[in-house]
C-alpha cells in the first residue's frame, strides 16, 4: 500500500474515532441505546452496497460482531460514569492484547520498537489508575471501559483472520459483523427494558453522526486496513484516541484536563507515531 495513502488513512481513522465519545455524551441517550442506533444506521447506509454483493453473509464475521456489540455497550455505558478522557484511555488498551494475538495466532513479526512502544503506552494507560491523581473515579465505569477494550481486541483479531486469511470482502464482513452487533445491542436493551424510540430529534441527529463519522470513517476503514496491516498496528491508531477525545471534551463538554493527564496522553500519542512509523517502514 502507498505510504502516503496509509498515513492519510491512519489520520482519518484517528480523527473519526476521537469524535465517538463526544457524540455519545452529546446525544444524552443511554450507552446501550447509542450502541444500537449507531449500528442500526450504519447497517442502513451500507445496505445498498451489500445488495450489490449478492446479499451474502459470513459466519465468522458475524461472530466478530458479537464482540463489537459488547464493546460498544460496555464502553458507551462507561462514558456516563467516568470522564471521557479516562474512559477512552482504558478502552484503547486493546492494541496491547492484539500485539499478543498477532504473535500467537498469525505468527507475525513484531518489531522490537513496536513492542517497547506498546508496552510504554500500556504502562501509561495503567498510570491513570494512580489514586493520588485520580480520586473519586467510579470503579464500575473503569471496569466497563476495560472490558470494552478487551471485547474490541477480540473483534479486531477475528476481523484480521476474516479479512486477510479468509479474504472476505469488506462490505460482506462489515454488514455481517455490524448486523450481528446490532442484534446483541437489541437483545441487551430488550432484556433491560431500555426504551428504544422516545428520544429527541437532536439525539437522533447525534446517533446518525455516530454511524457516519466514527463508524464508517473509523471502524469500517480500520476493517479495510486489516487486510494489509497487522492487527496490532491498526488498533494502535486508537492509542491516540484519548488525546483527540480529551481535547474535544475540554472544548465541547468543558471537561478539564490536568497536567498529569496531558503528559501521559502525550507519551501515548508518541508511542502511536513510532508504531505506525515502524509498520510503514516494514513495507506493508
Give the topology, please.
Elements: H1 3-18, H2 20-27, H3 31-52, H4 59-78, H5 84-91, H6 94-106, H7 112-126, H8 139-165, H9 170-191, H10 201-225, H11 231-236, H12 241-252, H13 259-281
Helix pairs in contact: 1-10, 1-12, 2-10, 3-4, 3-9, 3-10, 4-8, 4-9, 5-8, 5-12, 6-8, 7-13
Mean pLDDT: 87
Share of helix among residues? over 70%
What is the structural class?
mainly alpha
The SSE order reads: HHHHHHHHHHHHH
How many E strands? 0
What is the CA-atom radius of gyration, in angstroms?
18 Å
Transmembrane segments: 30-50, 57-74, 80-99, 111-133, 139-158, 170-192, 204-226, 233-253, 259-277
InterPro entries: EamA_dom, EmrE-like
Protein name: EamA/RhaT family transporter
Keywords: Membrane, Transmembrane, Transmembrane helix
Describe the structure.
With 284 residues, this protein is an all-alpha fold. It has one domain (3-281). Helices cover 76% and strands 0% of the residues. The protein has 13 helices and no strands. The N and C termini lie close together (6 Å). 51% of the residues are buried.
In short:
The chain is mostly helical and 284 residues long. It contains 13 helices and no strands.
Which characteristics define this entry?
about 280 residues; mainly alpha; transmembrane; EmrE-like
Amino acid at each position: 500500500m502507498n505510504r502516503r495513502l496509509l498515513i492519510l488513512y491512519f489520520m482519518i481513522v484517528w480523527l473519526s474515532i476521537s469524535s465517538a465519545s463526544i457524540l455519545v455524551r452529546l446525544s444524552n441517550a443511554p450507552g446501550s441505546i447509542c450502541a444500537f442506533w449507531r449500528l442500526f444506521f450504519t447497517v442502513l447506509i451500507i445496505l445498498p452496497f451489500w445488495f450489490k454483493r449478492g446479499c451474502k453473509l459470513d459466519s465468522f464475521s458475524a461472530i466478530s460482531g458479537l464482540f463489537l456489540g459488547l464493546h460498544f455497550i460496555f464502553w458507551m455505558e462507561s462514558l456516563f460514569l467516568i470522564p471521557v478522557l479516562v474512559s477512552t484511555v482504558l478502552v484503547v488498551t486493546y492494541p496491547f492484547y492484539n500485539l499478543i494475538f498477532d504473535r500467537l495466532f498469525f505468527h507475525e513479526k513484531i518489531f522490537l520498537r513496536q513492542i517497547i512502544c506498546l508496552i510504554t503506552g500500556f504502562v501509561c494507560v495503567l498510570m491513570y489508575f494512580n489514586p493520588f491523581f485520580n480520586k473519586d473515579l467510579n470503579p464500575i465505569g473503569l471496569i466497563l471501559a476495560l472490558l470494552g477494550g478487551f471485547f474490541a481486541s477480540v473483534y479486531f483479531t477475528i476481523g484480521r483472520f476474516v479479512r486477510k486469511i479468509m479474504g472476505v470482502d469488506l462490505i460482506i464482513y462489515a454488514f455481517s459483523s455490524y448486523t450481528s452487533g446490532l442484534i446483541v445491542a437489541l437483545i441487551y436493551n430488550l432484556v433491560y427494558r431500555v426504551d428504544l424510540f422516545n428520544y429527541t430529534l437532536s439525539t437522533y441527529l447525534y446517533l446518525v453522526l455516530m454511524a457516519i463519522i466514527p463508524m464508517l470513517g473509523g471502524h469500517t476503514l480500520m476493517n479495510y486496513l486489516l487486510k494489509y496491516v497487522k492487527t496490532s498496528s491498526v488498533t494502535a491508531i486508537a492509542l491516540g484516541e484519548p488525546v483527540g477525545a480529551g481535547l474535544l471534551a475540554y472544548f465541547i463538554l468543558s471537561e478539564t484536563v490536568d497536567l498529569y493527564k496531558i503528559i501521559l496522553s502525550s507519551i501515548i500519542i508518541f508511542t502511536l507515531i513510532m508504531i505506525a512509523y515502524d509498520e510503514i517502514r516494514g513495507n506493508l
